[in-house]
Amino acid sequence: MAYVIGVDCGTSGTKTVLFDENGKVIASKTIEYPMYQPKNGYAEQDPADWANAMINTIKAVMSQSGVSKEDVKGVGISGQMHGLVMLDKDGNVLRKSIIWCDQRTAKEVEEMNEKLGEKKLIEITANPALTGWTAAKILWVKNNEPEIYEKCAHILLPKDYLRYILTGEFATEVSDASGMQLLNVPNRCWSDEVLSALEIDKSLLGKVYESCEVTGEVTAEMAELTGLKAGTIVVGGAGDNAAAAVGTGVVEDGKAFTTIGTSGVVFAHTSNISIDPKGRVHTCCAAVPNSWHVMGVTQGAGLSLKWFRDNFCNAEKETASLMGVDEYYLMDKEAETVPVGANRLLYLPYLMGERTPHLDPDARGVFFGLSAMHTKKDMLRAVLEGVSYSLRDCVEVFREMDINVSDMMACGGGGTSPLWRSMLADLYNCPVKTVESKEGPALGVALLATVGAGIYSSVPEACKAVIKTDKTQEPIAENVPEYEKYYQLYREIYPALKESYKKLGAL
Fold first, then answer.
1. Model confidence pLDDT, tens digit, residues 448-481
2. Is the full-model pTM beyond 0.85?
3. Which residue from 11, 126, 220, 400 has the highest number of Cβ atoms inside 10 Å of its Cβ?
4. For residue 318, how many other CB atoms are within 10 A of its CB?
5. Which CATH class is domain 3-236?
6. Dihedral sign of CA atoms 428, 431, 435, 436 in order
7. 189 and 289 in contact (C-beta within 8 Å)?
8. Looking at the predicted structure, is the pLDDT value of residue 70 above 90?
9. Which fold has domain 301-395+482-502?
10. From the candidates 8, 240, 276, 362, which is the catalytic residue?
């Protein structure tokens, strides 16, 4: 039996999973580490924490499993996207990594728009200039810490720093590099035009590979520390969302997934490059060669339900603990007793502003149609439906871009709710499924490693062999037209409030 390792470098910790070639989990280990916030809006991590977590989690799964190091055929690494790691000429880290959720770069975003123009940036990098992405962070260091920028010889993303630690190679791959805003996303290579406009030297950047290509081999020193065999291949790997797509089998046209975590993501695969000229959704290179993915984000998805639970559902919390069940399970059961449309009550989930499709930081949450007949149960159902409407908004943008979505997976905490999956199936008017494996990104990059090691001949072939569907929720025929009426009304509310949101923000 052949085995592969998937390393997932997240924000709260790094998780390493050893799988057999059929995708079965043999051993798993997570090590957590801190995030530093030196000022309001800043977010940083120490790359040494990631490196130690990777080395020690690989060592743990190798020793727990008893699998011979000769049988481990490859390693794939997934990581939090957009983080900036700067090294000097000797490979030493120059400063803590500025990570994805850091918001210090508003001035640099303006600078990018001035130097390149918004339209040109979207054409080349497939996305508008964004504060959280890597290019703006590089400019921030250049503008604010010139003595550090001066010493910089290598710029890497978080997972690519881990590759450097394992193999000594300076490399990246297309899916994660798409989130730097320095890549020509249609052509899958660094953009000379963007680099020269921003005066960033191309020699600072690693070589770009496809996600399933071999990028290097485990060094003798790392083999000693991890328990792997020297010479074990390390593939390109992927950014966390692209890795999750492979881990859920979203690797062919028509396939998509919806994740309901704190925020909500709708993610679709496409073999034709498609860029939204209004920048409402992100387009990036997929972890499958010669294909792309588009991603819409709704900011307040699971967050809306958590907010409602924390403020209004103490009785449910108490009852749930007495019954030994999850409070969300009881909340679902209550919402199920309310009809589609929550008795003519609509909720806009804009607790944190909104990304797709409105790109409006001033947008805020709304209950629309509240009357004296409404109860807490109606409000609860309206919250679940409102999040579902906002996720349907993402799918509508995909449809405008000619991206077909006919096969949807659900993941994240919200994806475990049968009621929420049923709402999504009715609103998307297509089946919504879950997968058996809950390993997502770690499984995704392990599958990329099986392709690099020649165990499977392509990413879709690996997914077909390994990924199994767990549950399937079909749309309920009579609910589809009913939801459509409410969804069309939902779409009218934001435009009617847009100017009022601005005034509220200015008060």
1. 999 999 999 999 999 999 999 999 999 999 999 9
2. yes
3. 126
4. 11
5. alpha beta
6. positive
7. no
8. yes
9. Nucleotidyltransferase; domain 5 (3.30.420)
10. 240
